[in-house]
What does this fold into?
Amino acid sequence: MAHIIVVGNEKGGAGKSTVSMHVATALARMGHDIAVLDLDLRQRSLGRYIENRQDFMANGGPALPTPTLVDAPQIDEAALPALVTSLAHHDFVLIDCPGSHNALSEQAHSLADTLVTPLNDSFVDFDLLARIDGEGEKIKGPSVYAEMVWKARQMRAREGREAIDWVVVRNRLGAQNMVNKKRVETALALLSRRIGFRTAPGFGERVVFRELFPKGLTLLDLRDTGIRQLNMSNIAARQEVRDLLKALDLPGVQVRV
It folds into this structure.
């Protein structure tokens, strides 16, 4: 059976599609067979990202390891489990969820073996996981999203399946405002013990991520395409991708991208 990776976050702008594309492409580059489902049927950011990659190669770019994009424009929550089951021959299936709470997203979360939740490193986005007091030190209660994950976990337990490995990825870590970063880190550590997730390092705030989208490229492709010189910032960003893959600790994956 394929290992199911679900990338979910109900807030926009946390880099969900960027994380999805870099994880999927990294796995493809390491020789794994990975299928991708974009359930954000309105925006289709991840789907367009992969289509841009296919166009880049079709228009003279070098052949690049590429995830298999599954076309499912009319999918609903009732049909999703059967569709995912039909993809069981792949090593991995990555599902990019819409940035809203709906029945399709709920169903996708219940299918996750690994759930990845990108989160901007701020208390504005922390509210996705839990309500917190004005000092940022006391957890007042879980959010609607955290309750949805809890419900997905209960569903899996009733069906006798393994527990979801929930990984919160701290994204867009800035070099400044160390006090705020430390407060968010402390709050996440407290909350992780209460509702059961672990944290992983994400990607810094870098313009290069936005620049690569039109060509469908990732940081891991730059050396192969030769379209730009690798500078220190790009090299540091490539290491962030490696660190994220290591932290996810996916079965059968040896990080060597």
Notes: The mean pLDDT is 87. The chain has one domain: 3-248. The chain is about 40% helix and 15% strand.
